[in-house]
Design brief:
The protein is α/β, with parallel strands linked by helices. About 35% of the residues lie in helices and about 15% in strands. The chain has 29 helices and 29 strands.
């Protein structure tokens, strides 16, 4: 009976996590599904027991914490569960029919359970909440603030970026949604560009006799922060100790980390923020960012700095979120299904290089002042679609904001010239429609015809007929505003709920981080950046576009699409690594999160913020690699077939599953694997294998740490009906293996076939019986890493993939092509999963970190979408 209770308990908790429901709802679903095997009363008893256990020791599935700081438990004061501020904030969201309220309630509660308890003078905590670009971080930290104040926090400081417009937008939103009760909240700043001045009244306001709660939204500016520092310093420590303070650092990777290149030097803003934190004897510092590269590269052993030493909490984007993976086609494919998924919605349009060049201003200031190019054809096409998309939204009954972002340079002078060009263009379009209706509408009809059917309408929405769209076009053209939002303009991108705006926004730095563009439909983006964090933050189009996902269009300069695709991989790496050590013995200080290095021009963050970072050679333990770039010429394919034959010489592969098309050989020793790696002919661009130093480091690691380990070899065949006839068979080690269909990326040649990935996401566990981990979470690579570490018995795995030279791009994916003519008929790729080894000093690789973690490191290439239908 004990085993049955454990299984039911595990199933309930799995449902809580996977279905994002309460424990009671999860229990109801489990009780219904397993009603033939367990009574509802038994399930209720299990739930009671689970709640009792959770009350004594809360397990946070999305957090890495230093348990020593929490003394084994995280108690949430009952005052924060249903306090007045939280209930008022929750009621406001419900009246707006906001999405994801249950998830917001759960995650804000969990983050608040990680804060320092306000009734314990002298308690302090530092943490990081990792969100997603444009995913509702402001809404989330507003909820945390509401709960924290209900807990007993008395002073809330929100640090909101470097620009006035972002500070004002954040202040306005908090004033509207949270800091509403003027008798409860004492405002130390306001939206009318009233940033923090030296406040002599802090002494009286922070005194224990005061019932008000203080709030301030402060720009991360040296002068403003020094005003805050001086005001706090004028308050005696014994008063500060009894007035718990919560600092919310929005866009925490910007300005907060030390930006001096020399480790012993400290940048001005970082220095004053250290001093402010030192003046807070009781309270919590919570960093919020979607790009925490600079934060995780802080020195974890510098107690004075703001490294999130107590907790790192990851927020999971909800359904409907469009991030780099979704927009640029990097969603994982369900290769186990009979019907493969496509590579993502067709949202991205590439700006020709000549158009990007036309819009690039000269570097000399005098020449920039008169820079006024004609809008190129791609920019005019983007404006036309913005007009059409706004009209479609109106035809659907939408009466809210609609925005277009134009970001071509950080220089401010060209923005004003471009505004005049847009005003002229829109005025001409309006006249053509009003005075020459049919001819004027023709250009918009062409845009509608080319674009409207390329992405399916979201559920519950229909695509209106052209006549209904055309009726709305004159009104859209009359309503369009063009504003410049940059560091010197007087315009500000404020969205009044009572006055819907249809606006083209031209800008640079002020639009590149934090600022929300309401109803963003079209983005035209040519400006690049050399750093991960800046480039990802400039993607203002990421986020929730509920109800108009099919209308979203993104014009980007050629090459930026590939940069964003790489950043999607970087972000996935980072989140997977944090998740792989959640609910474990590791603390934030010990994790030393690693960030993948770009093979070309991109830097992780500014050089100064990486003063504590070093290139680390990561542990190969449990790591995954694959040959996704191959030489398809027959001489090379024949050499690699011989390498596989030598590896399996004298072996007798056995069927992996009855009736399947995979064969396995167990018990291969490490020296045979080393011989295989030395004998296989790698493409020069597959540097992780072809570079002599990197391959040598791998072999050294195998000899030092995995010499006595055993390996399993799997021949991966195609199980789809008819595959042997359409794709062919390759004889390997006495087995006729049905070949796989793998289509290379567009632009591949016989000499260089780039598949992006040949390994299925589930192949990491291919040699482990599925029944062994049936009850364990295995949907993500981080979860599969844990399963392999626990159940593989320390074995390594090599999977051999025979790839058919007849492979066709059956779904006609725009990023793929048919296999080029001339590819060898014995093309073989492989993936390798290294044994899980317990050690602390073996390192390898191409990542940076402040201290390497010696476990759960996956340095394999991406598991990307592909047109596959051949996996078992």
């Amino acid at each position: 009976m004990s085993d049955e209770r454990d299984r039911i308990s595990a199933e309930i908790m799995n449902r809580v996590i996977s279905d994002r429901v309460s424990i009671d709802e999860a229990a109801d679903r489990v009780a219904h599904e397993y009603r033939r095997f367990v009574s509802r009363e038994a399930v209720r008893q299990i739930v009671t027991s689970l709640k009792s256990e959770m009350a004594g020791n809360r397990v946070l599935r999305h957090a890495v914490i230093d348990e020593s700081a929490y003394q084994g438990s995280m108690d949430m004061p009952t005052s924060a569960m249903s306090g007045a501020q939280w209930c008022r904030y929750l009621d406001m969201l419900q009246r707006k029919n906001a999405f994801g309220i249950d998830e917001l309630s759960r995650t804000t509660e969990e983050v608040c359970s990680l804060l320092a308890l306000p009734n314990q003078p002298g308690a302090r905590r530092k943490g990081l909440v990792m969100g997603n670009v444009q995913s509702g971080k402001t809404r989330h930290f507003s909820g945390v603030i509401a709960r924290a104040v209900d807990m007993g926090y008395r002073f809330v400081i929100v640090l909101s970026g470097l620009y006035n417009n972002l500070r004002e937008q954040t202040q306005s939103r908090l004033d509207r949604d949270l800091f509403v009760d003027r008798e409860f909240w004492y405002h130390l700043t306001s939206a009318e560009n009233n940033d923090f001045d030296r406040r002599s009244e802090l002494l009286a306001l922070m005194g224990s006799h005061s019932d008000v709660r203080l709030c301030a939204v402060v720009k991360k500016n040296k002068t403003r922060l020094k005003n805050l520092e001086a005001s706090l310093r004028n308050v005696p420590e014994e008063i500060r100790r009894k007035c718990p303070i919560l600092i919310i650092d929005d866009e925490a990777d910007q300005a907060t980390p030390n930006s001096e290149k020399e480790k012993k030097k400290i940048s001005a803003i970082n220095a004053v923020m250290r001093r402010i934190w030192d003046l807070i004897p009781s309270g919590s510092y919570v960093a919020y960012t979607a790009t925490p590269f600079a934060n995780v590269l802080m020195d974890p052993d510098d107690e004075a700095d703001l490294f999130p030493s107590d907790f790192v909490y990851t927020l999971t984007a909800g359904d409907g979120y469009l991030g780099a993976e979704q927009v640029f086609g990097l969603a994982d494919a369900d290769v186990d299904g009979s019907e493969p998924e496509a590579e993502g919605p067709d949202l991205v349009r590439i700006i020709p290089a000549k158009d990007s060049w036309v819009l690039k201003p000269p570097s000399k200031k005098l020449q920039r002042e008169s820079f006024d190019p004609e809008p190129p054809s791609s920019l005019i096409s983007a404006v036309r679609w913005f007009v059409v998309a706004s009209a479609v939204r109106r035809a659907r009954g939408y009466a809210g904001h609609s925005s277009m972002l134009v970001h071509t340079t950080h220089y401010t002078a060209p923005h004003f010239a471009m505004r005049e060009r847009f005003l002229t263009l829109v005025q001409r379009m309006r006249r053509e429609v009003e005075f020459h209706r049919e001819a004027g509408l023709a250009q918009f009809y062409e845009s509608w015809r080319n674009e409207h059917a390329r992405v399916a309408a979201p559920a519950g929405r229909s695509t209106p007929e052209w006549d209904a769209v055309a009726e709305q076009l004159p009104g859209v053209l009359r309503n369009i505003e063009v504003i410049v939002d940059n560091g010197v303009s007087e315009d500000r991108l404020n969205y009044d709920a009572g006055r819907p705006r249809t606006v083209i926004v031209v800008g640079g730095g002020t639009l590149s981080r934090g600022l929300t563009l309401e109803g963003l439909v079209v983005s035209y983006f040519t400006r690049s950046s050399n750093t991960y964090d800046t480039l990802m933050q400039m993607g203002r189009w990421f986020g929730y576009r509920s109800g108009y996902e099919d209308l979203l269009r993104i014009w980007v300069a050629d090459g930026l699409d590939r940069d964003y695709a790489f950043l999607a991989l970087v972000e996935k790496d980072l989140r997977d690594e944090i998740r792989s050590v959640e609910d474990s013995e590791y603390t934030p200080r010990q994790v030393g999160v690693k960030v993948r290095c770009h093979p070309g021009r991109l830097e992780i963050t500014s050089a100064g913020k990486m003063a504590n970072a070093r290139l680390v050679r990561l542990s190969m333990s449990n790591a995954r690699q694959q040959t996704f770039i191959m030489d398809g010429r027959p001489d090379a394919t024949r050499r690699n077939l011989r390498a596989v034959e030598r590896l399996l010489s004298g072996c007798e592969p056995r069927p992996l599953r009855a009736g399947g098309r995979r064969w396995i050989v167990r018990g291969i020793d490490t020296r045979a694997i080393i011989g295989f790696l030395q004998g296989y002919s790698f493409h020069p661009d597959q540097r992780i294998f072809s570079d002599p130093d990197l391959r040598g480091a791998t072999i050294d690691w195998l000899m030092k740490y995995a010499q006595e380990r055993s390996w399993n070899i799997i021949l991966a065949g195609n199980s789809m009906p008819g595959a042997m006839d359409s794709l062919g068979v390759l004889p390997v080690a006495g087995i006729r293996v049905p070949m796989l269909r793998r289509t290379p990326l567009r632009g591949s040649t016989v000499e260089k076939l780039n598949f992006k990935a040949i390994m299925s996401s589930a192949d990491r566990l291919a040699d482990i019986e599925p029944e062994a981990y049936a009850d364990m979470p295995n949907a993500t690579d981080a979860q599969r890493m844990v399963i392999r570490r626990r159940l593989a018995g320390g074995d390594g795995l090599v999977m051999i993939y025979p790839i058919s030279h007849r492979s066709k791009n059956k779904l006609e994916l725009t990023t793929r092509m048919d296999m080029p003519q001339g590819v060898g008929e014995d093309l073989l790729g492989f993936s390798i999963v290294y044994p899980a080894v317990d050690h602390s000093d073996a390192e390898y690789g191409n990542f940076v970190s402040v201290k390497p973690l010696a476990a759960d490191v996956d340095v394999g290439e991406p598991e990307e979408d592909d047109d596959w239908e051949d996996e078992e």
